[in-house]
Each structure stands twice: as C-alpha cells, then as structure tokens.
Design goal:
Strand content: under 5%
C-alpha cells in the first residue's frame, strides 16, 4: 500500500467522526433540558462546548472537511444553544424577551437560509468571526444562567450587541456575494 492510499484510507475512517461530534450536541441538549441539577447541567454544557471545539479541529486535522460538516456544525450549535436556553424558561432570570435576544442571530440566519432556498438562491454557508463571537457569548451566558443567574443581564446585552453585529456582517457578506455573482454573469 502506498503512502497516498494509506492516507486516503485513514481519512476515510475518520471522515464521519467530526459530523458525529456535531450531532452529539442534540442529545446532550435534550438531556440538559430534561435534568434539573446544576452539576449535571454543568457537565453537559461542558461536553456540548467541547464537541463544538473538537468537531472542526478533527475535520481539519484529518483532512475530512466537507460541505455537509460545514452545514451540520452550525445547525447543531444553534439547536444545542436554543434547547439549553429553553431549559431556563420561564424563569426569574430568563424571560421570553431575553430568550429571543439570545437567539436573535440564530433566528435571522435560519430565516435567511430558508428564504435563500425558497428563492433558489444558493449562498455559501460559512462561519464568520462575528457569528463565532455570538456562539461563544451564548455558551458563556448558559454558564452564567447555571452558576450566577442574577448576573445574566450584562450577558443579555453582550449577546444582543454581538448579534446585531453578526446580523449586519452576515447581511453584508450575503449582499456582496450576490453582487459579485451578478457582475460575473
């Protein structure tokens, strides 16, 4: 067996691991929602964040990045965060309005994706730094809700501000991509 064949075989064996890591966030989020214990929720939140870090890293390390993985990772990020946040509803520290602020970027991106599909406009789905910032702040906010819920107000503002920046960034990137395609056509 040549080195090229051995590398291809190794990549093939590892090809599904990153997507599996992404998909693990869904059952982790469901269990997070179902349990009402700070320790277990903390462990589950840590595991969800860890799978988010590992999936992309593993895909790059083993050279198995894919369009499917690029779509599944943010989808499972959004599902994980939304389900985990919903576990705190309705509560004294997270209102429905606060919940909507925390998932506003996700709602916008999801609506934009569905709209582009309905209009048969293919827009490349790419992670953007502002979107990553929102996801990190959402995870931090989940830890705050878990460990120091009386301090969540500051994090609602931070996620809200980062979400506005991400929405502007995603919109500008989408418009720029559509304009570039129109010029090329």
């Amino acid at each position: 067996m040549t080195d090229v064949q051995a590398n291809a075989q190794r990549r093939s064996r590892f090809a599904q691991i990153p997507s599996f890591m992404s998909a693990l966030r869904l059952p982790i989020a469901i269990v997070f929602f179902a349990v009402d214990n700070v320790l277990w929720r903390g462990i589950l939140l840590f595991l969800g964040a860890l799978t988010d870090l590992l999936d992309g890293w593993l895909a790059r390390k083993f050279g198995v990045e894919s369009k499917t993985g690029a779509l599944l990772d943010p989808l499972f990020d959004k599902l994980f965060v939304t389900i985990a946040l919903a576990a705190f509803l309705p509560g004294p520290y997270l209102t429905w309005t606060g919940f909507l602020v925390l998932v506003s970027r996700d709602l916008y991106v999801g609506f934009g994706y569905l709209l582009s599909r309905l209009l048969k406009v293919v827009v490349e789905v790419k992670a953007r730094p502002t979107g990553k910032l929102v996801t990190v702040l959402q995870i931090v906010t989940l830890f705050v809700l878990l460990l120091a819920p009386e301090r969540v107000g500051l994090f609602l503002v931070a996620v809200g501000a980062a979400s506005v920046l991400a929405i502007i960034d995603y919109t500008a990137a989408g418009v720029a991509e559509l304009r570039a395609r129109a010029k090329a056509a």
